[in-house]
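Cross-check.
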Amino acid sequence: MLDDFLTRAALAGIGVAVATGPLGAFVVWRRMAYFGDATSHAAILGVALALALSLPIGLGTMFVALAMALTVSALSARGWAVDTTLGVLAHSALAFGLVAISFVPGVRADLSGLLFGDILAVSRTDLAYVWAGAAVITALLLWRWQALLTTTLSEDLAHASGLNPDRERLALTVALAITVAVALKIVGALLISAMLIIPAASARSLSRSPEVMALLAVIIGAVSVLAGLQLSLHFDTPAGPSIIAVAALIFTASVVIAPLKSR
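Predicted model, tokenized:
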């Protein structure tokens, strides 16, 4: 079964949806959309470092994504304007990464693949890597779920409950870095944040509890993957953008349906 490239693509995409669904819920709740965008842009610099040092690309992207996330968190804690900091660091890291790749000897990187993903070229090794990352993220979020919810609701309430908001923020940062490293080859740097935000935003208007929203975000992400792949196959369109286009249509439908449910 795994010899079929479309089956591997579907399984890999569902693995990404499993990782981005619950994490995307926290990104939406905490208004961290630009945070995910900056982290994914920085992953291109990680690709360049990995190629230059002959390291696994996943390791390089995870290292740089984590470094970017921690840097943004540290600067925002010191009072820097978060939107400005994210704008400067995200686009700078993306530019330096693209330039650095061109200087790596003997390497001709597929920049469109890095930016928009190449889900149809997923190998068995990539598939194992994606699902291993999804399992780690799921385990981390399940372990810290209640603490993360409390901290998201109110940091004062978290302190009163004996929780450390900085530690919970670090857990989210690590999960975000792992997600970026896992999803880079599948949907690309420019579309990772879309997979984090759009399914979760769609689920938010249709859910009555955080747990339902997280689960529904996974389902919407998986449906977007499967429908997007079918759309790509039928109309010969790029697979990654097709997946996001389907997710956007589902979001539009959720916006229309939500007011009807409340009546």
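Residues 5-258 form a domain with the ABC transporter involved in vitamin B12 uptake, BtuC fold (CATH 1.10.3470.10). DSSP finds eleven helices and no strands in the chain. Passed to J.P. for a second look.
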